[in-house]
Amino acid sequence: MAPILCTNCKTERALIKRPKNHKKLCRSCFLTVFEDEVHHTITSSGLFYPGEKVAIGASGGKDSTVLASVLKTLNERHNYGLDLVLLSIDEGIKGYRDDSLETVKRNAVQYDMPLKVVGYDELYGWTMDQVVETIGKKGNCTYCGVFRRQALDRGAKMLGIKHVVTGHNADDVAETILMNLLRGDLARLSRSTSIVTGDSRSEVKRSKPLKYSYEKEIVLYAHHKKLDYFSTECIYSPEAFRGSARSLIKNLEKVRPSAILDIVRSGEDMARLVPVENSSSCACKGTGRSATPVAGDDENIGGCGSQNGRSSGGEMAAMEQELKDNEAHKELEIDVANTMPATKAELKEKLLELPIRSGPRNSKAVSRQVLGTCERCGYMSSQAICQACMLLEGLNKNRPQIQI
Amino acid sequence: MGDTTASTPTMTAEVEMIPITVDFSGGLEMLFSNQRRHSLEIPATDKDGKPCNIASLIGYLCENTMKDPRRELFVLDDHIRPGILVLINDADWELEGEEAYEIQRGDNILFVSTLHGG
User: Fold this and answer.
1) Residue A63 counted as an annotated binding residue
2) Which residues of A touch B25 (CB under 8 A)?
3) Crossing angle of helices A170-183/A215-224, nearest 10°?
4) For residues B80, B85, B87 and B91, what is the CA-based torsion angle, rounded to 10 degrees?
5) DSSP of A344-364, one letter per residue?
6) Minimal Cα distance from B89: which residue of A?
7) How far apart are CA A60 and CA A230, in angstroms?
8) What is the mean pLDDT of residues A6-25?
9) Where on this protein does the Glycyl lysine isopeptide (Gly-Lys) (interchain with K-? in acceptor proteins) crosslink form (chain B) (predicted)?
10) Interface contact B112-A24, CB threshold 8 A
11) Strand partners, A89
12) Which residues of chain A make contact with B30, given a CB cutoff of 8 A?
């Protein structure tokens, strides 16, 4: 069979078939197109300003390694003027994170970026190994996820950095959209589609420059650029990737590769139907102010960080609890109807029918909570005591019993 | 192409073997003795005398190379698990005919998982 030529340069052998448009590209055209698209995402959403210090949440895995590599390339090519730093979280899991941290250390040398490692032990007094020793493996991902989210913010603060970028890709975003859709969680649906999260009070904003990049292309980019990355499964949540939403995404991609970006776009369209004042208020650390970036937490709160937005049982449980907590809040879906242009009325009808679980409709209402700070640690929280401190309280109570 | 092969049950020992390299990465190496590269000699034809293609290679790998019992992490419903990329001599297998691609002497087949975390 004669080699297929690149549809772009028409000289080199095509090695990649792009999932989004079936274009057949050679290695160098693919690398360029991939970088150009990330550049487009960055410039069209005004993600950075010149001179900005940006921390790259780096796990040593494919997504964050590609993100670091691409940002370094683009920063130099397009003179973003960014001051890039690698920020890694050490959960304290022997035989897992210590290996991937070695990869991050190599990345720091390869990309000539400073590296900051923040450990759960120094932040919380607990490593994940100790947490699992205390509570067992069940539900440990909830602890890890809650700790991680604060850890990235706190690590950034230590470095005096107000912007953390993460390697969430289009597959991650599509999966989160589907899960929020199935739960009927409008606030999170809106938030999860936003490229920038973090409210004015949170001091550290988050963004995902690879939001429109297919996981397949990220892996191919890493392969064809021969990037040094580490792939593993957390020893405490092995095979977490077998989550049903993830499988659904991959099966959809197999049938119709454009499905992933279609879901991302649809999610964005649906998010626009969520009233602005509500989308900027977040179920767990919303803000009273308007005109902020889309508020709130990362979609992988409570989930295992190694899964980078992938789901876990703990996350679902946390969401359920929050949905219950939200029941007291006022019904906002009626407002949606009133502010909706007539032509969108049908769409909105659909939106309301989405919740598949039985139960009172107002339990699915977009919630509004007021952001404050945690009484214990001073970290932003919508509750008097933040989630991390609540979990720590439980852990610390159990510690003496376990150690005896 | 290769319909000249006799369909009579010849001695399996006479089957021509072809050398290939098979690579696993992105976490798949865990299922294959934690070894990234496997240099293999595979039968040029299958039981029915048809030239070995990617589909039969996958079956061959499951039976002969994979020591890990968790076969479903590699194969689902007799096909490669969605989310695992296959590169034939560095080219996406979608450009090469996917499972029907007939394996040539010296080919490099790479299986990369996109499913694993960091």
Assistant:
1) yes
2) 223, 231
3) 160
4) 130
5) GHHHHHHHHH---S-S-GGGG
6) A15
7) 6
8) 95
9) 118
10) no
11) A118
12) 232-233
**Binding residue per annotation — A57?**
yes
Cα–Cα dist A151/A146, whole Å: 9
Sign of the alpha-carbon dihedral angle for A336, A341, A346, A350: negative
User: Which has the higher per-residue pLDDT, A290 or A120?
Assistant: A120
- A17 with B95: Cβ contact below 8 A: yes
Interface check A250 vs B, CB under 8 A:
yes
3-state secondary structure of B85: strand
Nearest chain B residue to A59, by CA:
B118
Of residues A325 and A53, more confidently modeled: A53
Residue B85 forms contact with A (CB below 8 Å):
yes
Cα A158 to Cα A78, A91, A122, A292, A306: the distances in Å are 28, 17, 13, 24, 23
pLDDT digits (tens, 9 = 90+) for B72-103: 889 988 899 999 999 999 999 999 999 999 99
Q: Is B73 at the interface with chain A, CB within 8 A?
A: yes
A167 carries a ligand binding annotation: yes
Per DSSP (E only), the strands in A16-158 are: 16-17, 24-25, 53-57, 83-90, 115-119
User: How far apart (Å, rounded) are the C-alpha atoms in residues B92 and B95?
Assistant: 6
- Chain B CB contacts of A16 below 8 Å: 91-92
Q: Please give the helix or strand (H or E) that residue B108 lies within, else none.
A: strand B108-113
> Between chains, do A308 and B94 touch, taking CB under 8 Å as contact?
no
Check if the beta carbon of residue A263 is closer than 8 Å to that of residue A178. Answer: yes
* Arithmetic mean of pLDDT over chain A: 79
Please identify which residue in the block is written with the tokens 């593993």.
A232
Provide the token pair at A7. Answer: 């549809």
Partner-chain contact B82 A241, CB within 8 Å: no
Model confidence pTM above 0.90:
no
**Which helix (H) or strand (E) covers residue A263, if one does?**
helix A259-272
pLDDT value of position A323: 57
A78 half-sphere exposure, CB direction, 13 A CA radius: 18
Q: Is A228 a known ligand-binding residue?
A: no
